[in-house]
Structure formats: structure tokens, C-alpha cells
Amino acid sequence: MATKVINNNKMSAFTSLVCRGDATKIKEYLEDSENEIEDRQIFINERDKSGKNALDFAAMLGREDAIRILIECGADPNYCTKTGYTVLHRAASWGHLHCIKMLVNCGVDLQVTNVHGERAREAAARYGKQDCVDFLDRAEAIAALREAIQDIKSTMTDPEKNLGRLNKEDKLTGNKLCDEKNTWLMANKDTASVELIFKKKDELYEALHYIFLKLEDLDVEKKR
């Protein structure tokens, strides 16, 4: 089946709206009844010769509202080019902290690396965008603590992971400590140092070390 080619004038008009950051017009353009659903996806996903699409241009220019509308309309914020650049890399490299904050709130992957082995954090550092580096360091620490809490809670409640090896007291203790750390994180995520957030994660694992020893014994038995 041949790939549909969209009218160049339409594509240019849409790209112009994105570059101006006119979120209202972008939404109207995508919802225009004259544009078929297939056309809308082409508007959103079409890439130029360098691999950039509408989302990339919006991120490079700091058009936060345009980024939000594009994602709401189906753009993938985690898509990366052949050289490994994501929209988060673009925003970080150009120093658009407001766009980075919005993308992090959308749940973008912070660990994707480009051809230089750089995450968005390292890309920001290479271009001297220290405020972006600091924010991404904090975002990574917060994500690490949240992931630890979710992982431990999942282990406490999933019978396939603990096979009955954990007793009621173990589960109550684990869930209680996770809830305490989550409450602390919600209250302090914007003010606590990155080091302290990582320390809270380590404290959680240390406090539940005896539980993980039980599960390690279980893994050994399963391998026999």
C-alpha cells in the first residue's frame, strides 16, 4: 500500500502554527473536518530530512502549550530519532525548563540515551543549562524513590513474587514503611536535596533488608 502524501502547503501551515506555539490554532487545525484522521496523524508524526517532527520543533522553541496539545492529540513524547534524541533531549539542550517540567509530569522516560550516550540530563549539561540539569537530577531521584516504593508494595502483595514466604507482619511492616516514605516524598519533593531523596530510598531498602533476605532464600530454593 502506498504511503499517503499530504499537501505541502497544509504541512507548512501546520508547522508554522507549531513554531509560533499557537495551541488554539493547532487544535483547531487538527480537528478541522476537512482534514481526515490519517492527515492529522501525518501532521503530528511527519519528520523532516533531519528526523525532526512537530513535537521536536515545539520543544526546541520552548512552545509548552504546543507540546501539550500535540501529546494530547497522539504524539509520542518518548519517540526518538535514529540518533537517539527524544523531545526531552531537545528541550534540555535548548534550556527550556518549563517544557521539561511539563514533559516530566507527562511521565517521559528520563533514561533514554542518544548516540553520544547522553540522557537529557547530560545533554543539558553539555550545553551549560544548569537549571535543567538540577531539575532532571531531582526528577530522577524522585522517580527512583517512587519506583522503589511501587516495587516493594508489589512484592508485598503479589503471591507469585513471595509464594507465601512473607507473613502478615512482614507485609504490614513493608506497606507501612512504603506509605511513610511516600508521605514524606509528597511533602518534601520540591525542597529536599537530591542526596536526601536517594538516601530515603536506601533507608527503605535497608529497613526491609530482612524481608529481601527471605525472598533471596526463596530464589535459591526455586533454582535447585
Automatic annotation (TrEMBL):
Keywords: ANK repeat, Repeat. InterPro entries: Ank_Repeat/CDKN_Inhibitor, Ankyrin_rpt, Ankyrin_rpt-contain_sf, HSP70_C_sf. It comes from the Eukaryota. Transmembrane segments: none annotated. This is Ankyrin repeat domain-containing 45.
